[in-house]
């Protein structure tokens, strides 16, 4: 999980402040030292860290007291604001061309996730804008790349333009003509990568740029490479007019240094982050939400957006209503489980809920498919009346259900307990008392 270590360390540094009625300069200095170390360990650029700490100290010491927040909360607010600023403040969207198609060119080193990201982006545009993209296979040196893109195209039901031609600029030109004929609204161009930046690669990318005039030139960088990612970005940006960055493999990067430094070092905005290998594992990047995730305050907005992308809106409203009215039953539990499975890995989802990110009980939580299958079997072994009214599940009914679903009684008991707990949690959330700073852990 991204930022795990940083998140823990920052929260620890700040926790010491939250209980205090009054904060001295020594307290701020102590917290600043810990924050500085945490950032350096997360592989954030040295200069970026220096500026960050300077700013935190200046703000924390000079801040007028806000009545609604205690001193510790105020420092957290300052750190939250500065983290947001460091990552770029506002979310940046893709540039749109005045006429279709909007052209997106992907560049980056080999293995960073370029081809996968072409697919993820197509999927994102289809889901969010009902787009009709065309993909152009411009990585002709790695034969597998063309097949990989074709497979992605098939999976998404999106056309892929490829050609047996050594001149990539020509392929791109032909692909664009095809898109114009077919009235595709987006064209996403995959390009070749190398293990490191070289002149031949840059020349080829420049030639493609001259033919395609992309509205967006996105550099794909691997978050796991930490600060090296910022150097790669500077290298590419020297020769190409990059418009933004896609930071991939954030799911595997526990440090997060690249995400935190790349904007400040290069001035380029992160537009998307890749959070897994699957085609739906792409998120638009919002500095404020990311800061809040790092500080363990959750990210309800992204969660809601994910839900909107993958949920049936009517279905979601129906569920919300049931939670409010407390009529959520086992049938709904199964429906919910299906919906949540569609949204992505559960450990990532849960951490977006405020207050859940640091819950030690949820650390590394995973619900294997097998367990989900068991849960479903248990519900299917209940009568309709039992599903609607879990309170009637007495021991003899539980034994019958266990026998029917082929699992031990303890598992049935555990599942019923879990159901009751999640029902309670959902009620708390829908009644709105988990929002805001006031519910930060330890406050
Ligand atoms: P390319 O050489 O830049 O085109 O890279 P590929 O698209 O072939 O990706 C290289 C590897 O990285 C593949 O195994 C992908 O599944 C994996 N990958 C790409 N994006 C992500 C991501 O966001 N998270 C994770 N965990 N893996 C990713």
From TrEMBL:
This is Signal recognition particle protein. Involved in targeting and insertion of nascent membrane proteins into the cytoplasmic membrane. Binds to the hydrophobic signal sequence of the ribosome-nascent chain (RNC) as it emerges from the ribosomes. The SRP-RNC complex is then targeted to the cytoplasmic membrane where it interacts with the SRP receptor FtsY. Pfam families: SRP54, SRP54_N, SRP_SPB. It catalyses: GTP + H2O = GDP + phosphate + H(+). GO terms for biological process: SRP-dependent cotranslational protein targeting to membrane. It comes from Lactobacillus hominis DSM 23910 = CRBIP 24.179. GO terms for cellular component: signal recognition particle. Its main location: cytoplasm.
């Amino acid at each position: 999980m991204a930022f795990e270590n940083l998140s823990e360390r920052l929260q620890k540094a700040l926790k010491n402040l939250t209980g205090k009625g009054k904060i001295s300069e020594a307290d701020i200095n102590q917290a600043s030292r810990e924050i500085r170390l945490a950032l350096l360990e997360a592989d954030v650029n040295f200069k970026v860290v220096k500026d960050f700490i300077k700013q935190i100290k200046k703000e924390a010491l000079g801040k007028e007291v806000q009545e609604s927040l205690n001193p510790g909360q105020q420092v957290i607010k300052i750190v939250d604001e500065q983290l947001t600023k460091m990552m770029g403040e506002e979310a940046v969207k893709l540039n749109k061309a005045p006429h279709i198609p909007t052209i997106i060119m992907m560049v980056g080193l080999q293995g960073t996730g370029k081809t996968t990201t072409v697919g993820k982006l197509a999927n994102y545009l289809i889901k969010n804008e009902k787009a009709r993209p065309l993909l152009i296979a411009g990585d002709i040196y790695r034969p597998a790349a063309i097949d990989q893109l074709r497979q992605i195209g098939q999976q998404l039901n999106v056309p892929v333009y490829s050609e047996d031609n050594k001149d990539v600029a020509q392929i791109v030109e032909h692909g664009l003509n095809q898109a114009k004929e077919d009235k595709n609204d987006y064209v996403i161009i995959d390009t070749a990568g190398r293990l490191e930046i070289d002149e031949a690669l840059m020349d080829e990318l420049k030639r493609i740029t001259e033919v395609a005039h992309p509205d967006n030139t996105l550099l794909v960088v691997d978050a796991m490479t930490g600060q090296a990612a910022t150097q790669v970005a500077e290298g590419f940006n020297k020769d190409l007019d990059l418009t933004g960055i896609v930071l991939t493999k954030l799911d595997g990067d526990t440090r997060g240094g690249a995400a935190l430094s790349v904007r400040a070092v290069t001035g380029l905005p992160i537009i998307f982050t890749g959070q897994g290998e699957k085609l739906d594992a792409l998120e638009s990047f919002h500095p404020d939400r990311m800061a809040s995730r790092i500080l363990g305050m959750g990210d309800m907005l992204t969660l809601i957006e994910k839900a909107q992308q993958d949920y049936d809106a009517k279905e979601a409203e129906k569920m919300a209503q049931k939670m409010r009215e407390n009529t959520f039953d086992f049938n709904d539990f199964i429906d919910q489980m299906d919906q949540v499975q569609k949204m992505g890995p559960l450990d990532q989802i849960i951490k977006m809920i405020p207050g859940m990110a640091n819950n030690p009980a949820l650390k590394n939580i995973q619900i294997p498919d097998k367990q989900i299958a068991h849960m479903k079997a248990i519900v299917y072994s209940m009568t309709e009346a039992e599903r609607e009214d879990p309170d009637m599940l007495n021991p003899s009914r539980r034994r019958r259900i266990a026998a029917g679903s082929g699992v031990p009684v303890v598992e049935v008991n555990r599942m019923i307990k879990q159901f009751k707990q999640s029902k309670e949690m959902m009620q708390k959330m829908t009644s709105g008392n988990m929002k805001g700073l006031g519910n930060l852990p330890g406050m």
